[in-house]
Amino acid sequence: MLYKFGDIEFALPLAIVIFGMSAMKYIMIDFIDADQPMTIKREIMPFLPLLILMYFADDITKFIPNFGYVLLTIFTILAMIMSFLLLVKFAKMDEIKKYKDLFKNRYLKDYLAKFGYEYQEKGTLDQIILKHSKLFNPSEISNINDKICGKIDKVEFVFCDLIIKKELKDALYFGVFFYAEFNKNIKSKTFIKSKDSKIKNAENLKKIVMDDTKFNRTFEVYSTDATNAMYILSPALMKRILSLKWHLNFPISISFVGSKIYIFIDTGKDNFEPNIDISAIKSDRIIKTELSHFLSIVKTLNLNTRIWKV
Fold first, then answer.
1. Distance CA 72, CA 13 (A)
2. CA Rg, the chain, in Å?
3. What is the largest CA-CA distance in the chain?
4. CA-wise closest residue to 173 among 73, 35, 34
5. Would you call 22 exposed, middle or buried from its count of C-beta atoms within 10 A (0-12, 13-18, 19+)?
6. pLDDT tens sequence across 213-255
């Protein structure tokens, strides 16, 4: 090895290298995929180049006598650059937070109020609602924000951003949770999930094959009562659910429980967030488009009609 752990000369280079690599690690993770949680792989990967270089240091010094000083110089420069970028990143994070707060609480809130909708940046949901949906375990909910509620054609609705953390899989799922009054009392528990959905909570129930080939290619249906499930899922409703999937183009999970319909749309991102790196006009257009997609659910599924009496 180039250095021995007992040597005094080893302490300073090691301290500088570790500091530099630590800064590099967190900046790399943020730029590559900030939304994903830390895993063992993500913790170790940034240090691999350093470990490889130190492992082969003896062999390299045979060809480059001053390799130790070269290595120290390289990592010292990297440490300085990454430390500077880290300071810039923290400064930018503060600006982003201020910009988002200003955009949401002064503009987005007023914009939605014009249509009679209520907006809460740090909204909350009753744990009973989350549990009643049967789509996920409330303990898995890591964060709730951007809650929007109101009425469309006399149908009360609520939707918000959710971050779901699966502890065992060490993964985060981002999406929009929507629920509305179904206006009818459903006697069974019926679940519909697109085949690309990661929600698995309903798969312990009986799987129902519907009389619609196109629907079956895209969705799976589970229920405690096959007859009731087929009654709920009329041909017209199945076509509307297919239309919703096509319109949103994200994995969808739906449950019919009690008098409500619950929907989770796995968008894979934090929604309704303004981007400081683009113009305010473009950011505004993107967020309004996102909002229109989710506000259209009531009409797309025709929830304002009373044709599904069960």
1. 6
2. 26
3. 84
4. 35
5. middle
6. 999 999 999 999 888 888 888 888 899 999 999 988 999 999 9
